């Protein structure tokens, strides 16, 4: 199981940009978004492994899928979809 990032560390990272307002539940939303991203990464890596007729998910499956997912998630954040 992944360890959680302490709330103080997360809030200090989010407050580095002084012109961005950080809401009260922003740290929870960031954590939920990370979990959602990891879930979709695992699902896509499982699909990639299945396509290659592999019983286990290996590092090259995750690497191949992560490039696409990061690009798509960045486009979604920018509203380019």
TrEMBL record:
GO terms for molecular function: DNA binding; protein heterodimerization activity. The keyword Heme does not apply. It is found in: Chromosome, Centromere, Kinetochore; Nucleus. Pfam families: CENP-W. One of its GO terms (cellular component) is kinetochore. Signal peptide: none annotated. Its main location: nucleus. InterPro entries: CENP-W (IPR028847), CENP-W/WIP1 (IPR052484), Histone-fold (IPR009072). Gene3D superfamilies: Histone, subunit A. One of its GO terms (biological process) is chromosome segregation. It comes from Hucho hucho (huchen). This is Centromere protein W.
């Amino acid at each position: 199981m992944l360890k959680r990032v302490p709330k103080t560390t997360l809030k200090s990272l989010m407050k580095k940009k002084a012109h961005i307002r950080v809401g009260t539940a922003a740290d929870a939303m960031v954590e939920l978004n990370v979990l959602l991203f990891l879930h979709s990464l695992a699902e896509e890596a499982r699909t990639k492994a299945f396509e290659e007729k592999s019983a286990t998910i290996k590092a090259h499956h995750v690497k191949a899928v992560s490039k696409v997912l990061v690009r798509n998630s960045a486009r979604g954040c920018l509203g380019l979809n």
